[in-house]
Amino acid sequence: MLLAGFPLFELLAAAAAQGWVNAARSLVGAATAAPVVNTLWTGAMVTAVAVAGGTAAAIATERSAAPARRWLRLALLLPLVIPSFVAALSWAQAYGPAGLVDDLLGVAVPGVYGPFGVVAVLVVEALPLAYLAVASGLASRAEPDLERAARASGASARQVLVTVTLPLLRPALAGAAALVFVTTVNAFGAPAILGLPARFSTVTTRIYSDLAFAASPAAFARAVTLSAALVVLTLAVVAPADARGLGRGAVRTAVPAGGGSTGTSARWPGVAAWAYVVVVTAVPLLALVLMALTRAVGVVPTPANWTLAHFAEALDGDTVAALGRSVVLAGAAATVVVLLGGLLTVLRHRRLGRGLGTVAILSFAVPGTTLAVAMLLAYGPWLRDTVALILLAYVAKFWALGHRTVAGAADGLPADLSRAARVSGANALTAIRTVVVPLLRPAFAAAWLAVFLFGLHELTMSSLLYGPGSKTLAVVILNLAQLGDPTVTSALAVLLTALLLAVATPLLLVVRAKR
Fold this sequence. Notes:
mainly alpha; MetI-like fold; 2 domains; 24 helices; 76% helix; globular
């Protein structure tokens, strides 16, 4: 209640205190009508494209003879590690005016700064989420033997897909759509980097502008109303999906995850998936690295023009302090979240525990801008512009990551082990310490690393809650990007991405050990 309930209550109460008439004017006024419409149509478009693309990618990796399938799975999930604002920066350096493709081929993709670029980057970020949901559904719901039976009965590959596979995947597809839509309407990094320069605003960037660049009571009231509207929208989408368990496999099969194959020998789906990875991930990251290494903007990015001066300039005293602050915040949030996740796991089969689990997942789904405004209203009078306020926001936001990871592993533990310890004379705490905790160590490690990873590159809440002495590394990069310094900005983005990949590697190893 202190982490999520009280702040969100304060937010909704502040919005209601304005009255229904003023709230309606804030939502449909000249300053907010366009951002609201932009948020809704981009959310719908990204959901449709990302779910379709994630489904195609899952079928390519799980139901076809894709080349280097294990590496392809990792490549498709790579955008989950890359921060949203770094992905937007890399796309601008790759496909924007004077970007890598423009330098090499003389072709610049029109609209990178604007709606097209925002939607494209959001699709790249959301597609791995849909891919994970659909691939899990293929492993747990879409029994490969049913597909083989349909093929043996004379059905074509297309008929099997339409009449067998996709109907079995409906819960997974519905869960993926809900997750992608909520993630998209909550997005801040890509709209801030690619949308604001083209005067294309969404609800999250409108809230950011009202709080960061305006000081009038009307702007603050508008930000509160928009934040409350996002809470209502998020609850309307996430609560039914979480209650119904959409996207969770309900049919157990004897086929291990990723091991089901219908014998399809076609390689072109895998080749197409690899081409997609190259275009949307490899080329933008290469362009970002080359921009960081090249001596100046407009210079041909050849080895003769490479320099490390931008990295040295980026690592000044303020940046190093922000980096250390980000590491400490991420580490502290990860530790607290794992402890809270473990406590909530103990209560998961009780009525109170189930309700708290839903609150945890809803606080994760609530937009970062909304949660930041709620934290300001609830704890701003005491903690404004401090690291402690940012830490509270991190813990509230990422609690679900720790809880779901640990609870999922705990549900798979044999109950007889704990019972045997109790029968042998151990009390409850001894049974937990000597039996349960050792078996859950990989899950605890995975949860800690996941929260640390998210906290290390968190931008949305940090950009609204930081003060003179509480900047994080992501905020420093955003401020540099807004000042128009692409070389130093790219250098910092490359350093942050390398750090995130270094954290993600042990996370992958822990997850594999847990499996």
